[in-house]
Amino acid sequence: MAAAPPEEFLKRLIELTKAEQAAEEKESSLLFTNAPVSLLERSGLALGNLSGQTSIGLGGRLLVELTRPAAYHSSPDFPPHDFRPGDLARLRPQGASGGGARKAAKGSSKEEKGKQKDDEGLDAVVYRTTANKIVLAVDEPSDDFVLPERIQIIKVANPTTFVRQCFFLNRALRKLEAAEPLSPLLSVLLGQQKPTVSQRSPDEPLDFINENLNASQKKAIDFALSSNEVALIWGPPGTGKTETLVEIIRQCVRADKRVLVCGASNLPVDNILARLSVPHPNFSQPIPLTRVGHPARVLSGLTRHTLDAQSSSTDSSALVEDIKKEIEELENTLRNGSGKNRIRGSERKKMWEEVRELRKEFRKRQGGIVSEVVSKAKVVLATTHGAGGRSLDRFEFDVVIIDEAAQATEPACWIPILKGKKLILAGDHLQLPPTLKSSDRLTKSLGGKSSKTASKEDAAHPSQPGKLTLSPDLEVTLFSRLLALHGPSIRRMLKVQYRFNEKINSFPSGMLYDGELVPDDSVKDRKLSDLEGVEADEDLDEPVVFFDTAGQAMYERAAEDGSFGSESKSNENEADVVHKYVQTLVNADVPPTSISIISPYNSQVLLLASLIHPQYPEIEIGSVDSNQGRENDVVIVSLVRSNAEGEVGFLRELRRLNVSMTRPRRHLVVVGDSETVSKGSDFLKKWMEWLEEEALVKVP
Ligand SMILES: Nc1ncnc2c1ncn2[C@@H]1O[C@H](COP(=O)(O)OP(=O)(O)OP(=O)(O)O)[C@@H](O)[C@H]1O
User: Fold this and answer.
1) Which of 139, 197, 383, 590 could form a disulfide linkage to 585, CB 3.0–4.6 angstroms apart?
2) pTM
3) Which residue ranges have biased composition labelled Basic and acidic residues (predicted)?
């Protein structure tokens, strides 16, 4: 296959991004426009008959606090719902027509904003949720927005992500089309040159700030700092990726470099922020840092580091505060006045004009403050999406770091890439890639068949070595593409894991990590009876238990509800085996919070939850995909598939299996039919053989 020209490569990424946007919008419009609001409410995607109160907060945004008034609800507590901080919600009068899948105000055309008015709706970010309150933050309410008396909120799709990705990819494309000389970083990313490393002199070894780093972490750090354009840090489960990145960031700051730290989602960014904001004894001066992003999306203990919080404590912020108060007072009078107190006619018009002017002034002055704060920061932290926001518009960085890069789509990575001279990616391409709607991953996540093969080579080397080739889909992440393009010399692997027992380690290490992943001494002998209150017991102290249901006629069932997810599978007998074993564990004083149950199939997750949660609500039960990055002392995996044909569907996906078997710290329990599962792939066959040999095998 001939190498693709870089222009074609970027155009392909733009095309794939647009296809993903279309797929997401289609899915959400199918769900929202066709579904009556009552169904959305039952599904937790809408909440109705709410009353609201407004105030100003969060950098001048309008906050709307929603509650359930006694006139319409018997309890002030919300029923179970799907609104989480950071989600986008459409707020509208109760009973307004039109589906919820309409676009967000931001990033949409003027025409669309106009339409939004006709619909009497307003898009807002969920800021905080409690049992009986939901607070929404509205960026730019229209001037004459009046809070309806009875309110309904509906979850909506957010197109801004894709609009921003295309914007930055187009920016890179324009550089190429204008034949501008490419920076060394872009040349390397687009396959026009090989990456280079400035070797450190052996006489001047790196002076590590954190002395407890292990040898592979130190090598990775040294390599990342010496690489001139790009370096990959390969971090299998529990190998201290965050620890390693924090050292790299501190070293960069010590060398007076400015760093932009990103993650595909907020959590990895906040994990780094949490560690970085605590001074290290060997590097005690506080690092000037700022967290860019909607405060609603930042972990609550860290909001003081946000750009919003920092902007409101500068010298110039007092005046801005005064303007804010003035806006708040005027808006309150205009929005909340009713009956005789309602301001009308020309006076109302005049007051809104005043609010408009004040808002303009507020934005101008606040923009100045934001630039001042960002200029002072040595380290700026944001999601890949957040890095493309207005506040970072004119800033450049010496180093861009992207954590969990194997979970970020390549278009998302191009947003921060265009702001940096050098790129460090950290991740593990042998764990699950980003969740997508445009590829066959949706089918797979519902339990359908995957067209993908499941070999390690496939996950690691999805395209041709040495050549820039067009990505077949967005599952090919930048991390794995660069590995294929430039070869393993651009990566360093973290080899010591601090999570699980030696036995749990041995299969994934041997099969996926070339036997190089080893447990640290502090975890290699971990067992269940180390937990407080749990007595030593030969069976329970076995690190791996396998309930083999082969020959027991414990067959799977297709989900029967005919709804979304109908291709999913469940297995009632397996669920019973799991339930009984949970009881055994709890009877042995294993705290329910130390137990997690996972399954690749959503229908099985629901079944397990309905069976086990009434008795043990504290036990986490979830899909394998949603458990990536998580860990617990005991993890029970229900494999579900059991049929005469040896069909295993998307269970075959090697990266999903890897995530399944690397969550537990002390006790891995697998429930499955070895006969069916062995037929799925060579990897599954070997896993079943390994379990038969190495695990404590139990017949249910
Ligand atoms: N060199 C080290 N010595 C001792 N403990 C370490 C070392 N490096 C990391 N750890 C510990 O290992 C655990 C995992 O580290 P960290 O959170 O940095 O890993 P991670 O790779 O980011 O995790 P994940 O696999 O969840 O992404 C933490 O408890 C951390 O303190």
Assistant:
1) 590
2) 0.81
3) 79-90, 108-119
